Amino acid sequence: MLAKRIIPCLDIKDGATVKGINFLGLKNVGDPVELGRKYAAEGADELVYLDISATLEGRKTFAQLVERIAEQIDIPFTVGGGIASVEDAGNLLKAGADKVTVNSAAVRDPSLIDGIASKYGTQFVVVAIDAACVDGTWRVTTHGGSRVTDRELYTWAAEAQRRGAGEILFTSMDHDGTKNGYPCDVYARLSDQLSIPVIASGGAGTAEHIAQVLTAGKADAALAASIFHYNEIPIPILKEYLAQQKIPIRPLA
């Protein structure tokens, strides 16, 4: 069995790592490169950097940051946030990113997935899906969960895979930020349906929650932000716990 991955997520605004709720009340929580190096040293398997600066200047700053990250961090990292064209993706891959993630833009124009995958390969494309349960059906949402679409989670995930997604990063908007755990049945169904890896995001409050989504939820990786940024669950402690639960992980260096 392939090792399960632990992935810290860093939101970036104007070159700094920030943390808030729905991008409001943002606080600077550290230098992105230094935090990334810290997480890599602690045993993180990968990193995700999301640009939440919408301006053109923000894009330029982010591309320069990606170059710095590539120079100084020796574990794979994915970048995303506002990627709306093959050119956008290409600029970040050329700057040194290992993968890119697309979300709302792919919902608006699914051919974006085909375009990036055909030019750079499926292994470079992560499709992020935010969804909420509406009247018993998991509906895909955009704009941080504020807009519900007519797309259904499992159908959209299957289409994303068919179009060339190499991984699916799924966040339940009903669980995100609650720290009450993941909807493991939903992750298990996604993992059974797809042949590509599924990354779980949103809902982790304890090491037990992460263990549950990696076992009962059949997720291939767990992504989190606050629990790592505020040292609520240090990566070495988390990995030690997962190893004790007989969950296959990459050992600490």
Please, could you describe this protein's structure?
The protein has 253 residues and is an alpha/beta fold. 38% of the residues lie in helices and 28% in strands. It is built from 10 helices and 12 strands. The chain has helices at residues 32-42, 56-72, 86-95, 104-108, 111-120, 153-163, 184-193, 207-215, 226-229, 235-244, and strands at 5-13, 16-21, 24-30, 47-51, 77-80, 99-102, 125-134, 137-142, 147-152, 167-172, 198-201, 221-224. The protein has an 8-stranded parallel β-barrel, surrounded by 7 helices. β8 and β9 form a beta hairpin. α1 runs parallel beside α2 (56-72). The longest helix has 17 residues, at 56-72. It is globular, with a radius of gyration of 17 Å. The two termini are 20 Å apart. The mean pLDDT is 93.
Q: Which properties best describe this structure?
A:
single chain, 253 residues, alpha/beta, eight-stranded parallel barrel, 12 strands, globular
